[in-house]
Amino acid sequence: MTVEQNVLQQHSQKHQQTLLNQLKEVTGTTDVQLLQQALQVSNGDLAEAVAFLTEKNAKVPQQDETTYYQTSQVASDRYISVGSQADTNVIDLTGDDKDDLQRAIALSLEESNRAFRETGITDEEQAISRVLEASIAENKASLKRTHTEVWSDSPNPHDRKRIDNCPVGLKNVGNTCWFSAVIQSLFNLLEFQRLVLNYSPPARVHDLPRNQKEHRNLPFMQELRNLFSLMVGSKRKYVDPSRAVEILKDAFKSSESQQQDVSEFTHKLLDWLEDAFQMKAEEDREGEKPKNPMVELFYGRFLAVGVLEGKKFENTEMFGQYPLQVNGFKDLHECLEAAMIEGEIESLHSAENSARSGQEHWFTELPPVLTFELSRFEFNQALGRPEKIHNKLEFPSMLYMDRYMDRNREITRIKREEIRRLKEHLTLLQQRLERYLSYGSGPKRFPLADVLQYAMEFASSKPVCTSPVEDIDTSAPPGGTTGQQLPPPSTAEQDSLPPLESSGPASGPTTATTAPQQQRVPIHKPFTQSRLPPDIPMHPAPRHITEEELRVLEGCLHRWRSEVENDTRDLQGSITRIQRTIELMYSDKSMMQVPYRLHAVLVHEGQANAGHYWAYIYDPHQRCWMKYNDISVTKSSWEELVRDSFGGYRNASAYCLMYINDKKPFLIEEEFDKETGQILSGMDKLPPDLKHYVKEDNEQFDKEIEEWDTLQARKAQQEKLALATAAAAAAASPMSIESSPPDNAVPQQDPEYMEQPSPTNDSKHLQEDTERAISRAAAEQEERSPEALLNAAIKLEYGRLLRFAQEDTPPENDYRLQHIIVYFIQNQAPKKILERTLLTQFADRNLAFDERCKSIMNVARAKLDLIKPEEVNMDEYEMWHQDYRNFRETTIFMMTGLELFQKTNYVEALMYLVYAYQYNKELLLKGLYRGHDDELLGHYRRECLLKLNEQAAAMFESGEEPEVTTGLGIMNELVVPCIPLLLLHDTERDLLAVEDMRNRWCSYLGQEMESNLQEKLTDFLPKLLDCSTEIKSFHDPPKLPSYSTLELCERFSRVMAALGRVPSDGR
Q1: 349 included as an active-site residue
Q2: For the segment 705-719, what is each residue's pLDDT rounded down to a tens digit?
Q3: Contact 381, 319 (CB under 8 A)
Q4: Is residue 604 annotated as part of the catalytic site, yes or no?
Q5: Among 74, 371, 633, 635, fewest CB within 10 Å belongs to which?
């Protein structure tokens, strides 16, 4: 077959497959042979093929169009019907009129073909898109109704209760992670904390404020004191900073929905604090210059020494946060070196009067708290917007500032000159080394030592005297076949043909039709042939080489390679020594007298105008790093800090570094009581007015807990009364064993899983188990009294269930679902609970089918009536049965979610998996066998979110407006609300999944895209990145269908078997 024929055949196959798909879509027929027959009869005419299938009356149930375009919402019983409005082209298919069916099919074909020609999207894809859009629209509508509940507190105050002396978090009250990060960093400076807590406003504050600053700063100062006092003594896990935030937000010109820049906010905060303390200092001064503690704590001075148009100058300037450029530097010292020198400064060190301009900065006084603002943003002129710099920048935990001090100016200049000279020499050596490591004149270059080695290997290969293509005879037919006419091979057969061998001219005559095949040269196909052609050498080799030539060549190549390797090692050793010399240039003790220890790192994740902030703060008492992420405060490590802060491989990087003078321990030391000498902690730190403020808030929180506990107790009492009322009604109703209860009688409230109401359908298995136990007891028991038979039957049934409970079974065979006693045994329920539950089983009214079972039932019911309240705690009994009901309900959530996941219906599967995981987590808190494998549920919950994230990202990448809207809708309404759930328990795989999802969207930053897409991305990213561990209010759990025990066990077994095995290598 020629290449042209092969292409035509492939095109024909694709066209036929397209027709089959369209025909299958229009008619609903899935029988491929029937579809192919219809196309063959109609000669490829789609309309005739449809007519043929209609006349054949293929027995395939037609799916109603309105049903096809409906989807059931997980969280409600409502249905969304897309395109359900009246349409003039709608044809009634409910009748038996075949003409209507024909017109409907023709209309569907016409619309399908037109849509495909215009958009290239099939009807099925459009239908899926419309269903997703409708689902998102419904979720959006629901979210709008509950907008005020977004990021709401947990209704259970016990979830918000502070544990021991754990640091207090700050609630994110709407893109305020910038506030939390800075405030926590300052609060953990204990000297700063003391200054704020003990601040007393000036006496004139009680009068009307004199100016705008006082009108703004003094209320803010009071709110900051209140906030700090709560962070010290609150019983809450986190507190609300809304009042202080609102005052600050008024001072920013940007919209409240935008996130504030950390450095801008810190500047403003320090300005306000400076003004507030300045007013107090001026009031307290007595004829001397007032000292402002904020200035003394955060502000330093540097000397600017320089030349301007040939004239030397020196100026002393004050600084707070010191700005540093990140781009182009690898570590903090390189940033500082560049910041300390501006312009051309050679003239500073010479007596010549140069016209060059430049300056150096030398610190004359460093503040106790030294803050560096890392400038990680630059304006992209081409795109017309700011962009974040993600370059890696390393910084030390201990920073020595000696080399930047004015008193070390001369020695530093000498060392800088020495470093400059060493770096020049280093550059030359690196250039020479590069010539060895990247050798060649073309675009591809290789290490010279390897090039010489390859040449030596080539020369030493076995010589080949013939060309690698000379031994291929193009005149012989494939495989050396004779002149016998063979049918043309199929594509698969051609791929498996052996390579041609030289077999001489073919024997016998050949026909003209085989000439094209004889002239084809077979090509080696590495993916379809199992070995190389036998006559082609494994490696290239020289045609002719003498022993003498080989000996000389090998000697030269060996010598040259050794020389190159020695030169390379010498260069690498010299480079290493110079780099080490540069690193140790400032390591002598005289240049390590001004140590600053890293106190806090403020991290930003996201893009230039949107993202999330958190802080790493060192705890000197526990000697570990703590991560402050809004309401979440957790222990961390230097390794995690480096991963999140250095940048270079993630969208997160340090934005601000806060160092403290290591020789001034008062900055982080606790305060001591002057009388007792004990460390002041908790409420003892607070002045009287703040003690009263915190005490009131704690009392309010205690009251909230008390009201919650009372409410829960009332609910439990109501449930208990309802059960008691139902039981009393059942006991009062006139029921005899022989007669069934009247229709209006209240049935006994037996648990659903005991399945007593009816002896029919799937509930028979429990009754059969009971009757089987009675029969075995009757066969084995000599004494035939009803009580003896009951005791024997209960013993046999318990033994059977005990074996189930002790048996090691695969996940798909969970005996806990088959019987409640198995669940109770595995979870070590009290013996009295087991006995009463088994008695309840044998007291089943449905056993009254013969006299023996009837008498045993009567004995069991009598024994139940004789059990005294003090013998079996009914509250405990009901609690165990409620736990089992919760277990079955969790199982149904899990089973339904996994079924939908296996069907790739991730949108609906998510809520089932989310609730299954949450409920299962609550069950497992009571015991290992109370619930299901949390790793399994966590894996599929995580995978479902990752699949949805992938779908949404693909829709966004398409650039089509409906697709983009749908994709962002999936993220906003489904994925983003679930991210706090992954962050809540802080497991490594969940954190990596969140990181993957965020990185996928952050990877679009800086890419060329339409302005409307850039706007949507800018609006969406803060929602994705600004996620604390506060749980967003979800819709009510999906309504669950009721399953009999048999149905539940069968479906659960089927789903678990389909999973194969519990994933051990998940994210």
Answers
A1: no
A2: 999 999 888 888 887
A3: no
A4: yes
A5: 635
